[in-house]
Amino acid sequence: MNRRLVIILILATLILYAWPMSSWLSTLGRQPATFATYAPSTPEVDSKPFMVEEFINPDPGTGMVHVGSICELSDGRLTAAWYGGTREGAKDVAIFLATKDPGHPTRWSKPKRVVDRISASRELYRYIKKVGNSIIFTGSGDRLYLIYVTISAGGWSGSSLNVKVSSDAGITWNNSRRLTLSPFFNISELVRSKPVPLNSGGFALPIYHECLGYFPEILWIQSGREDGAIAFRKSRMAGGQSFIQPSVVAYGPALATGFYRCRSDKKAVGVAVTKNAGVSWSEPQTLNLPNPDSAVDAILLSDHRILLAFNDSVQNRENLRLAVSNDRGSDWVRIATLESTQGEKYSYPYMIRSQDGLIHLVYTWHRKRIKHVVFNEAWINAQMKRTAK
Amino acid sequence: MYLGFSFVFPFLLIMALLQGGTGLLGTLRGWRPTLILGLISAFIAVTPVGGLPLARWMISFNANFSISLTAILFCKVLEISFGVKLLDKNTLLTCWVFSLTAGLILYPMALGLGGFDPYQAGWGFSWLFVVVGGVTILLLIMKNRFAVVLIAAILAYNLRLLESTNLWDYLVDPFMILVSCIALSSRFLRKLSKRA
User: Fold this and answer.
1) Closest CA to B64 of B179, B187, B192, B156
2) Do residues A137 and A144 lie in contact, with contact meaning Cβ atoms separated by under 8 Å?
3) How far apart are CA A56 and CA A80, in angstroms?
4) Cβ pair B125:A23 closer than 8 A
5) ipTM higher than 0.85?
6) pTM of the model
7) Going by fewer Cβ within 10 Å, which terminus of chain A is more open, N or C?
């Protein structure tokens, strides 16, 4: 290399690095991403306790279903997604979607197949062995996001995340897009919990890694300029091998608590807090609530209490209970047992709060059906009073 | 753009394998054998197997072959084809050391060792860009050709030639680390045997 070429290449280097630096400089004046803390509607004082249970999907017979998620569209309709097939990890597993009109009593629509390994393989233009966990949520307007797992080789540790976007409330979908989230063959990234909306219009989506390490992470999603396009990055909530499947409850622009599924011998629900909008998280601690290595989900109530759905056991998923905390997750009061049957499984609770203040809980019922339980805060308060007696 | 570029690494790998195989029959230098082998390689890369081009099968299991590894392979193919040696021993040694160092910084922590994830730094301008940019300029001043590979990596990142939007994936990949380990180990063993 002669001197002139060296100078030209140095200049080229500076120009090429100025490119990403300029977009970074343009963000300097902006406010850092903060959690959009909605002001939950205060429940009417005279509202009566209300609780309804129903199944979203028909009985799949000898098949199985798992990992349900639910969201509300702007017109009040509910949409639920889950995966089902002959067995977990089977090649015929597909992700299904059903909708329900507002009001009661209306039925859930017939499940519609949104993606399976064949369609994912075609859209992602690569070999897909199977599909798995998915979650569905709404963005601005009626834009629906479906984040789902695909596996090209191996088991769950071979998982990669993909996104599908619908701009017409789930009638049609854009082609799937692969999210590169790990430098190691882009594997071992999974999703399970609902996102936390951000003030910027984006989302903080709790995800987790399971390969050599097992740890919780946050996937930061921002809508792109083009229709259906997204920009993303991820950050870590904790390292190690003990905690996965974070469920995040935000109660201030910068304040949130994360609840974790615990894989360690402690067999208790894990917890961590952030005071800087998810930039850093405290070291995970364990709560005084058992956890049999199963997913939990939490949601903020109108008076800033936290409601938690969990398996109240250190051994199995034979029950599903609700607990309430008045102090942002330190102490808990068990308020209701939704399920309890020996030898059965109730797992993967997922809760949202709809615009009318109702809380919608979906979970895997006997690995056969996705159950939808709807209740209001008056019901929670009534359960608390009953427990206090 | 990344869809088209995803065929480049598989094409080069097939070409290198063909050159290795046919090279046993005799020397294959020159335009004509290179053109023939290139066409055969391109044909194999796009040949559908089970509904997918062979190249996309390779991408199914690793979608982000780093620019460094692609550049090494490209130079190897060029060397066999025309006897042009773009990367000298010094450049290759720099490449192995850089890749191994990057891999040692990245992989253990990205896979869960501790609470810090260096992979996070690759999604937008950060300390990683400053370090790699600085190393590139330093190597240019030292007239080390590996700097050109690093320039190609940041150019590819800006053009989003890989599926990944993270700079780390343009610099290293697990295969690059493996190749660097083998190259440095064999170099070390050679030196050791020479001393003996």
Assistant:
1) B156
2) yes
3) 8
4) yes
5) yes
6) 0.94
7) C
